[in-house]
What we know:
Structural class: mainly beta
Shape: flat
Amino acid sequence: xxxxxxxxxxxxxxxxxxxxxxxxxxxxxxxxxxxxxxxxxxxxxxxxxxxxxxxxxxxxxxxxxxxxxxxxxxxxxxxxxxxxxxxxxxxxxxxxxxxxxxxxxxxxxxxxxxxxxxxxxxxxxxxxxxxxxxxxxxxxxxxxxxxxxxxxxxxxxxxxxxxxxxxxxxxxxxxxxxxxxxxxxxxxxxxxxxxxxxxxxxxxxxxxxxxxxxxxxxxxxxxxxxxxxxxxxxxxxxxxxxxxxxxxxxxxxxxxxxxxxxxxxxxxxxxxxxxxxxxxxxxxxxxxxxxxxxxxxxxxxxxxxxxxxxxx
Length: 312
């Protein structure tokens, strides 16, 4: 990420950091501590990589307060409580800055006259916005998106190209939905008939996504059969995840790629899922619980457990 202009003092102020060295440097890029160039900023949060601090070409390094700075260090240092978290927040802010200036409505696009678009929104070309949609301030919708009728989207949310949002969806503020995800498609509901065929069960509910949620590319969240599928605030979903109908995901839960959660399961808050975790339906899962990669969960879980294996 280059072509940025950011004073080191401003960065230090954001994280309440202590500057050691030149406090007038302007940062023009970011990089890893091994590969950073002059003008870049990087970070160091582990003493075992201390040798890189002497070798790096980065102009500025964000470090943990606990790290002892070598006397022959040449870079400007910003000491913070947690270098890894601070650097992640910096990258997040720089990423938001890339789209912050996007405004206006590109053509061709369609916006139903009964929808409300508030100030500083951006709507990319070939996007279709159905009737009674409410877009709050500073929303960015990139090209080739579909926003279904009666959908509400909160301020500062970013929707990347190709996202499809079905009708009656409610999305909070400060969310990010990455390319080609589908929100609100039908849940997998079919009832068997005596002759072996299946009849479709209409899916009449919706999806509610609370504030500060991140949804990766090609992830699908099904609407509820009745009532709502709910993604609570602070949830982070990776790419290629399937969330079934009437599922509830608790606050600040993190789920890695290719995991699947079957219908009507309730996932506790602050849980962590490795890749390819499979959850059967109608379970109640505990808070602060960790599920190792490829774990298969077929029973209710308790708080603060770590589960491994299939079946776990």
